[in-house]
Design brief:
Length: 145
């Protein structure tokens, strides 16, 4: 639960930064369009916005890895280029594997299926136990008469 709260707070901060950069990009784009001259600021702001977007996707990938570990289910193969892409944030960690949109859909569907299986098992045993208790109550009520 605490991990989910941390994840939500971090995503909120990243999305806020992304929104600010998006507004800054629009402002710089409008200014460059009026002046007809770009000194590199437009591409710089665009690159920062792309990096924030990739941080969001990376954090979501980490979150889904935690969920898959909790359900003891594998993540998709990292070598599958349809499900992952590599991005370097220019830090000491080098290239990081981030899920693509198709990868996010694949993992979400796998998590939903696993949750559904666990829920079905619980409902099955709950129904069996309730039925057994009902039968036991019926036998006891008949026995007392």
């Amino acid at each position: 639960m605490i991990e989910l709260l941390r994840y939500k707070i971090e995503l909120r901060k990243l999305r806020k930064a992304q929104k600010e950069l998006s507004e800054k990009f629009k402002h710089v784009h409008d200014r460059v369009s009026k002046e007809g001259y770009d000194d590199g600021e437009l591409s710089y702001v665009g690159r920062e916005e792309e990096e924030i977007t990739n941080w969001i996707n990376y954090r979501q990938t980490q979150y889904y890895q935690q969920i898959c570990a909790r359900f003891i289910m594998p993540m998709p193969d990292i070598e599958d280029s349809k499900l992952y892409f590599k991005y370097n944030f220019d830090d000491d960690h080098g290239d990081r594997d981030i899920l693509t949109t198709a990868g996010f859909h694949f993992v979400r569907n796998a998590i939903r299926e696993e949750k559904k299986r666990k829920r079905e098992v619980f409902v099955f045993w709950f129904t069996v136990i309730i039925g057994f208790m009902g039968a036991l109550i019926g036998v006891i009520s008949v026995w007392n008469k």
